[in-house]
Design goal:
Belongs to the glycosyl hydrolase 3 family. This is Beta-glucosidase. By secondary structure, the protein is an alpha/beta fold. The protein contains 20 helices and 14 strands. The strands form 3 sheets. Strands 2-3-4-5-6-7 form a 6-stranded parallel beta sheet. Strands 9-14-13-12-10-11 form a 6-stranded mixed beta sheet. Helix 3 links the parallel strand 2 and strand 3. It is globular.
Length: 610
């Protein structure tokens, strides 16, 4: 949509109230279209990059004091378009904060189409040295600065204490407070050294949840002392570090400043020990964060997420309650109607006395201080913004990401037999849950396998196209494996060819490549060898639907190979408990492009790793 919203600031010269309300809003938007402002300047209708056009309603809001915007993948199809769009926005409002979720690994906006060049937090956390996290943050920061982005909505400072966490997982640096703090602080330092602002998330912590806040309200019903000892540690250390970290040679205020977070994002997670509302709407959570030393903006997670929908009844009410709780910037989704709803609700709250203009202006002051700090930091770093600089930074990030992934992605469990260059592997995605944070289902592993083995056969997805095969499709696949030992009726696109076997065709014996001969799985020496079977997993927790799928396939093909895209820590527990000792597992630590490429190399040469 490119037209102006039905409501919002309307006067030619914005009033104090209009500017104050706009000063707490951080909407997303649909760029491109036939109307809007291009990178050629105010009033330009064409920029050379269709997606770089700023919709008219957003341009009006920016001139009326809008705090900033959040980029989504639709805004950033390539770095050239991103740089042009940022230039167009900053031409309208130089103080506009341009923010983005560019965590690397599973969550990428700038590289959403082909997958992230950076393996992601779990991969960085698997390395013993936090110096690599510093380098990764600096390389990513250069790309963000070159594309005109001011604020990264990261790093993720959640401690993944729940293996069945549906939304954090490999987005976190680790499972212990110390590891998360060490790598998170180093990553933040790297970003800041490149001239970018950082926003730690998701306070007080999203790592102990079993509900995805995109779809429901998670509850962490644990004593506050436990939350302090586990979840708050990375935030406390990032805000007020007591020791030097990678990249620091001296102690004192300068070192402390390089370690601090510019902003903190609150989570839509209910901590009864903190207060009766989700942290993003809970004044006690804000007080707790301020007590830890944070004096910058507090940013909410997106207010249109499912966790708040049933609780507040509307995005507008959620916006008012978030500001009442102490939030400074309110994240909104792509639809301009969300901006309109939040703006109008805040306007009514000011008129009714629930909020004051002065309270809103306090938030605006914090945001302006962040902008000034980022502008100064960018000048000190000598960061260059533009298409050429962005392409150069992306190439450097790709090189670094490939080396990190090669060092981290490894084979565990049973020994793998290399996949031959002319192999026709069957590829089955066993993942059953959509990754809402990534914005779509990541298929980078399948893409990488298909590129390496052009005759690979991908089992058809379910009708919604979001997961792997539905139960019916998987049942047909397993039935054919059980009878013939091979899948034979699938082509490389996943379309069933309908090939039939004669009624009397004997079942092809299964040859175990990845497990030793056992009584449960005999290995006939003269049996024909079936094509490799590669399965993709994320959370095969015992008792889960994904685990049940894995067990069914394992029963008929004990030579299957796993590419595991979820947490690396529980791999032995999740796969080693299968009969016969379990399969060989390529531990990818995520689904980014760098992770997928390294996983393919392990399938090709499982015994070779730098």
């Amino acid at each position: 949509m490119t037209g102006a919203p039905a409501a919002g600031p309307t006067s030619a010269e914005p009033t104090r109230t209009e500017r104050a309300i706009n000063g707490v809003l951080l909407p997303g938007f649909e760029s491109g279209g036939s109307e809007g402002v291009g990178s050629g300047g105010s009033g330009s209708k064409s920029s050379g990059h269709d997606s770089a056009r700023v919709p008219g309603w957003l341009a009006d809001a920016a001139r009326a004091g809008l705090a900033g915007v959040v980029y989504f993948a639709r805004n950033t199809p390539d770095v050239a378009t991103t740089a042009a769009l940022s230039a167009a926005l900053h031409a309208i409002s130089p103080d506009l904060v341009i923010a983005v979720d560019e965590e690397g690994g599973d969550v990428s906006r700038l590289e959403a189409i082909n997958g992230s060049s950076l393996p992601g937090a779990a991969a960085l956390g698997a390395l013993s040295s936090a110096a690599v996290s510093l380098d990764a943050g600096r390389a990513l920061g250069r790309l963000l600065a070159a594309t005109g982005i001011d604020l990264l909505l990261g790093p993720v400072l959640d401690v993944v204490s729940e293996p069945d966490n549906p939304v954090i997982g490999v987005r976190a640096f680790g499972t212990t407070p110390g590891d998360v703090a060490r790598h998170g602080i180093a990553f933040a330092r790297g970003l800041r050294s490149a001239g970018v602002g950082v926003c730690g998330k998701h306070f007080p912590g999203h790592g102990a949840t079993t509900v995805d806040s995109h779809v429901g309200l998670p509850v962490v019903d644990e004593p506050l002392d436990d939350v302090r000892a586990r979840d708050l540690v990375p935030f406390a250390r990032a805000l007020c570090p007591e020791v030097d970290g990678p990249g620091s040679s001296t102690r004192g205020p300068a070192t402390r400043d390089r370690s601090r977070l510019d902003a903190v994002m609150t989570a839509h997670v209910l901590f009864p020990a903190v207060g009766p509302a989700p942290a993003s709407l809970e004044p006690a959570a804000t007080r707790l964060l301020r007590e830890l030393g944070h004096d910058g903006p507090i940013i909410t997670d997106a207010l249109d997420m499912g966790a708040l929908r049933g609780l507040t009844g509307s995005v507008g009410e959620a916006a008012v309650r978030a500001v009442e709780a102490g939030a400074d910037l309110l994240c909104l989704g792509l639809d301009p109607a969300l901006y309109t709803e939040a703006y109008d609700a805040l306007d009514r709250a000011v008129s009714a006395g629930r909020l004051t203009v002065e309270r809103l202006e306090e938030s605006g002051t914090r945001t302006r201080a962040l902008v000034a700090a980022v502008r100064d930091r960018r000048a000190v770093a000598g960061a260059v913004t533009g298409v050429d600089a962005a392409r150069e930074a992306l190439a450097e990030l790709s090189d670094l990401g490939a080396s990190i992934a090669d060092a981290v992605v490894q084979v565990r469990g049973a020994r793998l037999v290399p996949l031959a260059p002319d192999a026709r592997p069957d590829v089955v995605d066993l993942r059953t849950r959509l990754d809402h944070a990534a914005g779509r289902t990541a298929r980078h592993v399948q893409t990488a396998i298909a590129a390496a083995w052009p005759r690979a056969r991908l089992l058809a997805e379910s009708d919604d196209g979001q997961f792997g095969p539905d139960e019916s499709g998987l049942a047909v696949f397993i039935a054919r494996l059980s009878r013939y030992g091979v899948s034979a009726d699938l082509d490389r696109t996943g379309t069933r060819r309908g090939a039939d076997f004669p009624v009397g065709t004997p079942a092809a014996p299964v040859v175990a490549q990845a497990v030793p001969r056992t009584e449960a799985h005999p290995v006939p020496s003269t049996a024909p060898r079936p094509e490799p079977l590669v399965v993709i997993t994320r959370e095969p927790v015992p008792g889960s639907a994904e685990r049940a799928r894995l067990e069914k396939l394992w029963a008929v093909r004990p030579d299957l190979v796993v590419v595991h895209t979820g947490l690396p820590g529980p791999v032995d527990d999740w796969f080693g408990t299968l009969s016969g000792g379990g399969p060989g597992v390529v531990v990818a630590c995520g689904t980014g492009r760098a992770n997928a490429a390294a996983a393919v190399e392990r399938l090709r040469r499982p015994d070779q790793q730098s």
